[in-house]
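Request: Give me one sample?
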Amino acid sequence: MSAKVLLLSTVGWPSVARFAAGFAHASCRIDALAPAGAAITASRYLSRWHRYSGWSPVAAMRAAIVRSQPDLLVCCDDRALAQLLSLYKIETGGSAIGELVLRSLGNPDAIPRLVCRSGFIAEAREESIRAPETVTVASRSGLDEAIASLGFPLVLKSDGSWGGEGVVIARNATEAAAGYERLRRTPSPLRSIARALKRRDVHFAREAMTPTSRQVSAQKYVAGAQAASAFAAWRGEVVGAIYYDILVADAAIGPPNVIRRVDCPQLEAATVKIARRFGLSGIHGLDFIRDADGAAHLIEINPRATQGSTLAFGPGRDLPAALANCLVSNAGIRPAIPSDVVAIFPREWRRDPLSPFLTSGYHDVPWDDPGVLLASLGLKPRRRSFQSTVLRERVDLPEKPTLSRFAGTFR
């Protein structure tokens, strides 16, 4: 007996394809809603691809769900989560789709509380979780009050932002004022259209046509190193989790390039409390700052699957397998990564092809999924057919080619 999982993605991130491998090894069939050209469309583990439309995203999502008839939905980016919530609001009277969203998220009505940065931190502090003071900034006078209360450096964040965007670290009043104005204002129509053309992303064009206001919060700055938890939850209980320190990140506030898995009671306690308070199901992530004394401060939540969620560290630490076990009995599991230090492919290699972490730790290259490997390198894999049953057997390459021959791609 197997379950069907529908991955929901509005971006082309290679990490989405890694979830396909994780769920496939856990005895699940995998469908995906994703844009054309996304790495997931090249995965050997994918049973069926449903094309995502940036012009009519909610309709495309609903059509994918109706065609796929999945047992579980997994949101792989914040935009997909927002669109799923929009669909949930449309579905009334206990519809099949409404019940599916409820099963997949646990408590969809709690998601807006997670997305509100200041409100989420306030609730975390009520649970006695160590977290920096965070306040809503509704005006320039409110910004002055936040500066007087929290001091510098000051972290400004806009609700609904993700991927490292929508965050400003201000070190003086001038930077704070400029950052606040940038975060709260919707980009001009001209700028949005220019970004749509440059990035080939229609979402920016939609933003130009339907501008929305943004709520900004100010958070007290905590000096230290980044840490995180990635966890799978079911009806408010954590069923699998990975806790890790971030050794190398993409800039000061970007996603991780190199991580070290750790056993950390602080991160574990905070994760369990958050999952229970909000009644969560699915895969989520928490971001922390570890100060000079090693104390972990919770700074925000990613209410969707994160990069760290893709890694497999064995029973209880393989999140797709942990979640699949809530759907079917005796779900399979991937072989455990043989090192606690992991260099994320292709992020760390792109940053430094000679990085010592590529050899001293485990380099997370998808050798078992050649199409995703090529797509991650920016190369175009052969177009896949989705008419046949997904292959499960291991792909044995004649030999692992050295990545150095591709290094020029990233210079």
DSSP finds 15 helices and 15 strands in the chain. The radius of gyration is 21 Å. The chain has a mean pLDDT of 88.
